Amino acid sequence: MINAELLRDKGILVVMPVDTLEKADFERLNLLVDPYIEEHGKLTGILIDAESFPGWDDFASMLTHIRFIRHHEKKVERVAAVSDQGFLAILPKVADYFVSAEVRHFEYQERDRALAWLETGLKVD
Known about the structure:
Layout: E1 2-7, E2 12-17, H1 23-40, E3 43-49, H2 59-72, E4 76-82, H3 86-89, H4 91-95, E5 102-106, H5 111-120
Parallel strand pairs: 2-3, 3-4, 4-5
Antiparallel strand pairs: 1-2
């Protein structure tokens, strides 16, 4: 399950995986972001707020996740992965092969820095 919030004034989608990811989660995300992208052309960023990564419910869920990424990857400027878990820490290196968005990892306690970076794209100290 994914909790999600679209910060419309900033063009930032905040996603918080709280349980194994299901196909319906990504269908709900599409319904949330597609109208915004249709109106504004893009998202400024996506904040993945995941203290830990719960994995996928099944193979269909993983495929739906991949389709979501492929459909939106050229419409997102930046992605911030906020997590202390090793899997998401390597996300920026892996993402370079699959997405055009700039991807950065932040430690879990650096959520505010991650959000500031998404908003501006500037280095945040």
